[in-house]
Structure to design on (1007 residues):
């Protein structure tokens, strides 16, 4: 497969599928669905091929494999340049898997405007995969914005009652952050070009920018602009307010992708761009960011505890879980950084599954109010078991994947600052509390009057629903038992990130 | 007059000839809109060929003792004007036919206006600049009032005419001052005298600054920069929709052509004195245009304010030129970003107005945004195209509007002084603008089809025009390298 442009195949197969779908008549609903699923599965297959060949491929000097580069806008040295390392490998794997699962999970719930829906989903996949693979800052920005439009449509057309408010809020929040990032991307490129006598060649090339060494003022300004874009996406406290609205209003599959992949774009951006390009500014601002992460961890968990709406509860739990990711990134420590990447993968799998499970019950009850549930264990045993499984994974039960990432972040943080680690560990108990309490309220006791009123509509999970959750459950077990599978590919890229940071400055000082 | 000089004049003469031919055809076969439409469309396509042949070698040719000049800038702008005219002609019949207005006078008037724009593009003498300007705007007043039985059209045309004449007078007054204090009307001559003023060989006269102020106010009216924009929403709302599309693009780009010839060429030595004014105008224009657009319920008024905001973005490119050291690479990028933005804007804005026009195939349809309700469902293609144009106007990649905005921002960042800060103001404005553009998307895709919704016209010219606008919008965004070297060559011609 040496001659195969595998990364371009992964990026553009969904685009080809979307174009193909555009020519299918809109009343051929079954054909539209299967073509979309076929495209997503094919994309996933390309990803598996990429994973299979990953170890044998020779990395370039920056540690990226399967690198493809072509000139795009020569006047400014802008390239179509893509490449993959261990971190982006895992992210792409997560993206293509969750997209296929989401499309399958949409077969039942989405009955209107299937054509537009499937096209939006495939275009969304192009953007997401592109963000993870881009090695040119301009190209990265293009893919970053491509994500926005399909998600705007998915929430706005197929969402809940308050969908228009939610989708506009989502778009405006994201745009404000990303547009300032555009200024920073163009600004860093200009500084690079001025440093090379006005020659723009390589001014957007990630690997050249990484070695450039920006002055402290430029670093600080650019870091803040990138930070805003990524922090809104993650979302970090206090930039998280779009998330509960978007999650609650989005259709099930939209929530899965939102939680499973879109939030990771922010975390990935920190690791790929903020730390390597602006090491000095990262050092200078690490402590406030760690504090914000801790606030997010605590705040998300406490707010989740009191949510009356099932989806909102999981949305706030995401704020808490993603706090571990940013914490792990900004303590600049090997285990913590690897833990942050693992946490992103695991959160994608587990929270994606939890949103699918919310979708299962919502399809039957058209309600997500926790107070109206109760006693589901007797009527829906399979559902109860699957829900319990992913709930335990989310709590961080050892042996399941949710544990590994959080544990490594603790371990790494403890080495830097016991106090911060202690705060984070304490919150795990709140995390256990809101999820266990949720399980108790939904599944134990007598069947509630509301659910009794549904009568025979209250059926257990069907085959499609089980099929969508099975691969996620399998990976949660595998990654939980053998985390070494993932850690192997993470060693080199995390080493590179940390080496860049430590050569730029001293270790984090002044932490309690 | 040598043959090279004649060749340099060919594009201009050709377009005037085409306009006259349209009038003649209408006399021979009155009321044959089809023939007129085909003649105008094909004639304009040939015209683009003529422009390219005349400017193919990229050389500079002066005509009339240096009063008119064919250079890469002229060629770039002429092509753009012909594209604007071509698209406008394609979008018009669906609007005029059901309302019972003839196409022939319309097309001829439009082409006379375009010939004025082309005269500006090549003018290197202050008097010729003014001549071109008047030739541009007088037919514009007529087009605005073309739906003569419509009260709103008449109101808009009168406002446009009064303020337009007023601003022309101010502009002419400014030209007189400039002539009085430099003793020449030639662009190069003015630049030379001002160079001497700047280097201290001559004193800077108060009258000269007065002239500069009057000139600035005059062109600010023409490009509808805040606070000289008050005529725009009324004129835009009252005009027949295809005319509105033309007004928002043609005269605006022509006015920027005038700014390039006058400010970037003749008054360039004084640019340290006017950069601050342009920067302030840019900030006011972007911000106020966008903020007022937020509150509009009428799509034509909304797009009118949005076009004001786009004027502001283009002014940022001009400020980038003015803030950069004379003759530097950054100065060239500033001019090139103005030209690139103008081209991208022409495709996306004309496309957006075309969809509005397509919805108004029957007389009496209002321009309320509500008429777009459920468009994504009842006319998926028109809805998707409108979404594309709106995304491009917002600046979402990979569309023309995105790269244009990125280019303007990059030029501003490369410039000197306080100009780089304009980049931040541009992106904040882009985020504000996203709100009202996406609101139309919400209406199109997230609201139900109302009962009695108007059908969308789909005549061949309309479809062809929409395809051209959409392809232009996508292509310029995906492969900016096609247009970029031309814009840079055109910019280099006046530095």
């Amino acid at each position: 497969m040496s001659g195969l442009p595998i990364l371009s195949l992964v990026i553009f197969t969904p685009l080809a599928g979307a174009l193909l779908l555009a020519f299918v008549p809109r009343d051929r609903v079954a054909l539209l669905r299967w073509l979309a699923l076929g495209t997503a599965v094919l994309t996933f297959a390309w990803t598996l091929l990429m994973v299979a060949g990953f170890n044998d491929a020779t990395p370039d000097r920056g540690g990226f494999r399967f690198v493809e580069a072509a000139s795009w806008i020569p006047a400014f040295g802008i390239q179509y340049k893509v490449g993959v390392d261990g971190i982006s490998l895992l992210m792409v794997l997560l993206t293509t898997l969750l997209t296929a699962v989401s499309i399958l999970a949409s077969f039942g719930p989405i009955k209107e405007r299937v054509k537009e829906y499937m096209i939006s989903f495939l275009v969304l996949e192009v953007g997401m995969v592109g963000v993870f693979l881009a090695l040119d800052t301009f190209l990265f920005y293009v893919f970053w914005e491509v994500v926005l439009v399909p998600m705007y449509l998915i929430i706005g057309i197929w969402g809940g009652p308050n969908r228009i408010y939610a989708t506009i809020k989502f778009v405006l929040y994201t745009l404000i952050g990303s547009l300032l990032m555009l200024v920073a991307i163009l600004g860093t490129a200009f500084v690079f070009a001025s440093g090379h006598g006005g020659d723009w060649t390589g001014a957007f090339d990630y690997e050249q920018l990484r070695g450039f060494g920006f002055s402290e003022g430029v670093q600080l300004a650019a870091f803040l602009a990138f930070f805003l874009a990524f922090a809104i996406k993650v979302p970090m406290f206090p930039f998280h307010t779009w998330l509960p609205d978007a999650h609650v209003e989005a259709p099930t599959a939209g929530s899965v992708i939102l939680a499973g992949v879109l939030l990771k774009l922010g975390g990935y951006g920190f690791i790929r761009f903020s730390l390597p390009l602006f090491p000095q500014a990262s050092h200078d601002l690490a402590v406030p960011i760690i504090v914000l992460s801790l606030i997010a961890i605590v705040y998300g968990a406490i707010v989740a505890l009191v949510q009356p709406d099932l989806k909102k509860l999981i949305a706030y739990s995401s704020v808490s879980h993603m706090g571990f990711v940013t914490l792990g990134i900004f303590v600049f420590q090997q285990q913590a950084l690897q833990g942050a990447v693992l946490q992103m993968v695991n959160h994608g799998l587990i929270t994606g599954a939890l949103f699918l499970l919310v979708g299962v019950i919502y399809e039957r009850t058209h309600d997500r109010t926790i107070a109206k549930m109760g006693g589901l264990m007797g009527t829906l045993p399979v559902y109860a078991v699957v829900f319990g499984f992913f709930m335990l994974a989310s709590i961080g039960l050892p042996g399941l994947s949710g544990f590994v990432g959080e544990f490594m972040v603790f371990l790494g943080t403890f080495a830097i600052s016991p106090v911060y680690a202690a705060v984070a560990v304490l919150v795990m108990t709140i995390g256990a509390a809101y999820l266990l309490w949720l399980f108790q309220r939904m599944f134990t006791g007598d069947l509630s009057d509301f659910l009794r009123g549904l009568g025979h509509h209250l059926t257990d999970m069907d085959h499609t629903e089980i099929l969508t959750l099975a691969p996620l459950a399998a990976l949660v077990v595998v990654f939980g038992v053998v985390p070494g599978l993932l850690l192997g590919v993470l060693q080199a890229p995390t080493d590179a990130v940390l080496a860049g940071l430590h050569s730029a400055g001293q270790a984090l000082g002044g932490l309690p | 007059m040598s043959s090279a000089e004649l060749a340099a004049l060919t594009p201009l003469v050709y377009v005037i000839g085409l306009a006259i031919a349209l009038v003649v055809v209408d006399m021979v076969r009155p009321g044959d809109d089809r023939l007129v439409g085909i003649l105008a469309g094909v004639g304009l396509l040939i015209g683009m060929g003529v422009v390219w042949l005349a400017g193919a070698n990229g050389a500079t040719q002066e005509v009339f003792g240096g009063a008119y000049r064919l250079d890469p800038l002229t060629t770039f702008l002429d092509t753009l004007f012909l594209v604007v005219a071509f698209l406008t002609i394609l979008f018009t019949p669906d609007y005029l036919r059901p309302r019972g207005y003839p196409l022939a006078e319309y097309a001829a008037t439009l082409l006379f206006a375009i010939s004025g724009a082309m005269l500006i593009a090549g003018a290197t003498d202050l008097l010729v600049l003014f001549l071109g300007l008047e030739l541009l705007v007088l037919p514009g007043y007529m087009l605005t009032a073309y739906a003569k039985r419509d009260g709103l059209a008449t109101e808009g045309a009168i406002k446009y005419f009064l303020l337009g004449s007023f601003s022309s007078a101010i502009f002419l007054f400014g030209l007189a001052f400039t002539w009085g204090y430099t003793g020449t009307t030639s662009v190069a001559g003015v630049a030379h005298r001002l160079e001497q003023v700047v280097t201290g060989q001559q004193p800077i006269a108060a009258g000269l600054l007065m002239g500069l102020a009057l000139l600035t106010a005059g062109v600010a009216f023409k490009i509808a920069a805040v606070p000289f924009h008050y005529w725009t929403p009324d004129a835009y709302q009252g005009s027949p929709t295809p005319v509105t599309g033309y007004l928002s693009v043609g005269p605006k780009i022509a006015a920027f052509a005038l700014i390039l010839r006058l400010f970037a060429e003749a008054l360039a030595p004084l640019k340290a004195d006017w950069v601050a004014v342009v920067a302030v105008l840019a900030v006011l224009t972007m911000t106020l245009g966008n903020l007022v657009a937020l509150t509009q319920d009428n799509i034509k008024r909304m797009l009118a304010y949005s076009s004001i905001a786009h004027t502001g973005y283009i002014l940022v490119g001009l400020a980038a030129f003015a803030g950069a050291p004379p003759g530097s690479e950054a100065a060239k990028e500033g001019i090139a970003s103005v030209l690139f933005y103008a081209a991208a804007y022409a495709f996306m804005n004309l496309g957006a107005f075309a969809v509005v026009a397509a919805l108004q195939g029957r007389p009496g349809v209002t321009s309320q945004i509500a008429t777009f309700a459920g468009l994504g469902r009842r006319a998926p293609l028109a809805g998707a195209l409108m979404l594309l144009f709106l995304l491009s106007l917002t600046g979402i990649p990979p569309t023309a509007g995105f790269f244009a905005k990125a280019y303007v921002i990059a030029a501003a960042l490369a410039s000197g002084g306080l100009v780089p800060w304009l980049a931040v103001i541009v992106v904040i404005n882009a985020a504000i603008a996203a709100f009202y553009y996406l609101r139309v998307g919400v209406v199109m895709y997230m609201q139900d089809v109302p009962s009695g919704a108007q059908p969308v016209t789909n005549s061949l010219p309309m479809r062809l025009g929409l395809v051209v606008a959409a392809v232009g919008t996508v292509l310029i965004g995906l492969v900016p390298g096609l247009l970029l070297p031309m814009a840079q060559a055109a910019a280099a011609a006046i530095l």
Remarks:
- The beta strands of chain A are 65-73, 78-84.
- Residues 281-507 of chain A form one domain.
